[in-house]
Amino acid sequence: MRDTKESRLLLVLLIAIAFALITVDIRGGEDSPVDGARQAAASVFGPVENGVSSAVDPIGNAVTAVRESGDRHDRLARLERENAALKAELGSDDRSRSRLKQLDKLLGVAGKGQYGIKGAQVIAIGAAQGFSWTITIDAGADDGIERDMTVLNGDGLVGRVTTVGPSTATVLLASDPDFTVGTRMEAGDELGFASGQGDRPLRVELLNGKAEIKKGDRLVTFGSQADKPFVPGVPVGVVSRVDPSGGDLTRTLYVTPFVNFSKLDVVGVVVQAPEKDPRDTVLPAKPKPTPTPTVTVTVTPSAPADGPDQPEQ
């Protein structure tokens, strides 16, 4: 339709008629004179509306589902974060309890041996010096740590300090192949030298090739001159194998260390040696052997079976 004066007048007239019909319909209520026309229109356009609605509703439902899914995802993510935080808190408590237990054992060893110690925590494994079995601790020169000090934990000998910085220090572990410490057998005077073998048992060369040693015997550190690098009496390990002497001047033992070098956390550096050798007092109490139950079987002779009557003599 062209935009003319007549077309504009027609548009205004149609709008006026529409408003008039709306007014009549509202005032008429259920008896509205246009109710029949509205019903006829509904019967014509209703199916079309339903079809459009059925086509559009899945999309709307999908949008709603995505929106609600996002809300559920946010709630799930929030719950996961809260659970992770709770687990971290519980884990922190577990670590704290573990460290308190380790510290308690460490103080027990220090008390038995009368060692003056500086507590430290392992913060790294390995070092720039190229040692294969070392740890770094969070204590250094500012804490009174010096080179060639003995390092132990609640189980026994850990190693010795090799390098010292202001706030950290490097410890060579007793399992390192370059590590050697003088040892003494429990309840005896048999001396030897223990060397690290990585993840294998320590190798101990006893000075007495005829020494009577058996599996299960235990060793402690013999101590060094001026107590450096080793103080005496620190538990080293348990004999796991004894090589035949074969008439040699020395005898070779293999010793399982008390310390688990792959699980080190809280350690102590001996900054003050004991006034006297604690000997074997730092060693833990030997476990009591579990008695083996025995079964006693008593055989009771049975009565002889009845046989045929014997003829009288």
Automatic annotation (TrEMBL):
Tell me where on the tree of life, at the top rank, the source sits: Bacteria
Q: Does the keyword Hydrolase apply?
A: no
Name the InterPro entries for this protein: Cell/Rod_1, Cell/Rod_MreC_2, MreC, MreC_beta-barrel_core
Task: Write the record's keywords in alphabetical order, separated by commas.
Answer: Cell shape
Map out region (Disordered) in residue numbers: 275-313
Q: Where is the composition biased (Low complexity)?
A: 293-305
Q: Which Pfam families match?
A: MreC
State the signal peptide span.
none
Segments forming domain Rod shape-determining protein MreC beta-barrel core: 130-270
Family under the similarity heading: Belongs to the MreC family.
Under the heading PANTHER family, the entry gives:
CELL SHAPE-DETERMINING PROTEIN MREC (PTHR34138)
| Function according to Swiss-Prot or TrEMBL | Involved in formation and maintenance of cell shape.
The protein here is known as Cell shape-determining protein MreC
Q: Tell me what organism the protein belongs to.
A: Streptomyces werraensis
